[in-house]
Structures are given as C-alpha cells and as structure tokens.
Amino acid sequence: MDEPGPLLSDFDYDLPPERIAQEPARPRDASRLMVLDRPSGHVEHRRFTDLPGLLAPSDLLVMNDTRVIPAAFTSRRAGGARIEGCFLRELEGGRWEVLLAGRGRIREGETLALVGEGGQAAGQVVLERRAGGGVWHVRPPGGARPLELLARIGRPPLPPYIRRRGPADARGRRDLEDYQTVYAQRDGAVAAPTAGLHFTERVLAALDARGVERATITLHIGLGTFQPIRAERLAQHEMHEEYFELGAQAAARIEAARARGRRVVAVGTTTVRALESAAQADGHVRPAEGWTRLFIYPPYEFRAVGAMLTNFHLPRTTLLAMVCAFAGRRPVLAAYEEAKREGYRFYSYGDAMLIL
Known about the structure:
- This protein is α/β, with parallel strands linked by helices.
- It has eight helices and 17 strands.
- It has helices spanning 51-54, 146-153, 168-178, 201-210, 248-259, 269-278, 318-327, 329-341; strands at 32-36, 43-47, 60-64, 66-68, 72-76, 82-90, 96-102, 111-115, 121-132, 135-139, 186-189, 213-220, 242-246, 264-267, 288-292, 307-311, 352-355.
- The radius of gyration is 21 Å and the shape is globular.
- The model has no long low-confidence stretch (mean pLDDT 93).
C-alpha cells in the first residue's frame, strides 16, 4: 500500500536558464509583481511599486529582519588545493559548523588555511568531525569570533545558480548590498529572505502613507533552504532546522489584527514559517523563540497567515511546496507557466508574487 501524501514530482516544472535572474532589478523596486487571487485563480501583472495600493489599510505586513552575514569563505589544504566553505552557525565550545566543498576527500584532523582579501593568510581551522552532507564541525583560529573574522575574509553566500565573473572582492562588495533587505537588523542568516529584497525606502514610505501597519520577526535562514528534497514523498523528507524569534510586540500586533478580522500578510516563506511555528492550534500567536523544523506542504491548514508575498522558487523544493500549500498546486504551477510566457525573472534576484 502506497504511503499517503504528495509526491515530489508534483512540484516540478521546467525553467529555461535565461529566466534565472543574475542581478536584481535596479532600482530594486522596479521588479515585476504577479498578483494571484486565490479564490478565482486570476492572475494580474503589476510592478512592485504597486504593492501599497494592492494592500488594504487594515492589513498587517510582517517582515523578517534577519541580516545576511558574509558567510562564504575560501580556504586551502596543505598541498594548496582550494576548498570553498560557508559558515553555518557557532556551536557550543566555540566550534563552528561549516559547509565545505572542493576536489579530493578531506579528512578529520586535517588543517585548512583561511584565505583573506588579496590572498593573505587569515588563520587556520581544524576539521574535527564530519556531520554529513558536506557539513563539518571545525575548530576556528584561537579566540576568533565568527562575525569579526567573516567581516575580513567572507563574501555573500550567494545561491549556486547565481554566477559571478571577474574580481571576487569587487563583485562581493556589490552583492553584500544587493543580497540584503533595506530593513535588515539582526545578523545570522546565510541566505537572504528574498521576498524582502524588492523593498525600498520609497515603498516603505508609501505603505506608511497607505496606513499599512508593519511588524517584524526574525528567522535566521540556513543553507537547508536551498537543499533539494531527495525523498520520493514529501512526508519522508527530513526538514532542516532554523532559529526564529517572535517577540512580544509583534505577537501583540498579530493578535490585535486577528481579533479585528484584519489580514496578516507575510513577506516571504521564512516569515510564514516563523508565524506558523509560533501559532497555536486555535490560531492565537504567542511570543516564541527556538529552532523550528516545520515543513509546510499540501494539505496544510494555515493558522496565522492570510496573504503572502514571495518570489518564484526552484522546482522540487520545500519553498515551492509551501506556496502550493497556501494557494493550491495547480493554480501556482499555472501561474508559474504564465510567468515564463510573460518573461518574469525567477529565483533570488528575480521578480515577486503576491498571493491574496
């Protein structure tokens, strides 16, 4: 007897490589905005600057204020071979969890030399334990604080589908600004909450003028966001964990909106994940913090979120499964096909979708 639940192949689609955005829109609020009406499945084509007029003054817009750290770094083995790394988080005892990739098999006990700007040596890390999937627990240079060291040697941890040519240092400085929301506050993400990349001070001011209230939560996005689902059925997939915080002020605003029948609009799948992780069975949202492994896929009953702003996501991913749970698999995939026909730009630096 087959296991219940959707198949991974249910969340697949073809995308021409030229539709993958390599640069953000300039200015960033010049991106396109597809509006999908859930009750009818109707699609409308707008610009992101239209967002304030598409929301009601009674709406509560909830945003993820995480800040992307320059987590990507380069190291070299004793023989000179290059190993690319990405800092994931700090562990107990001062050790780091990192993702490493390069040619040849690296081994426990091996020492890698960190490479700073201009190829200068920046200390060494010792590989203490292999955690699986390219993830390692390492001992960093003595006394090194992650953010201080990464500020000197790190680069933006761009997704692998964004290709860069030319001097890494110059390009990295540009991406440090591009791959960050204008309202980022709290260091800790190794991937951007990409739905928020479209916002500018101009759009935020227009939202204020419209009377749209805002609240912020924090969810520090990990690289697991981009990891493919390898199980045949979604129910078999082991979801990665991410740290989130929903403070008392944000919870109070959400509860007040809920009590008055106002719509909670989540900016990005990360905000959705944090809100739904904090929501109680009866829909009440209380202050919460900790690690969440919540995996949202069809069928799922949303407790806190009434509308969603998001980007166009990779096929066969947890993010696309969440969007399909919110708006229906067939309407979402039909909207994606229309986006391809209409020349929308996809993925992290691509265009946006507002689901109402």
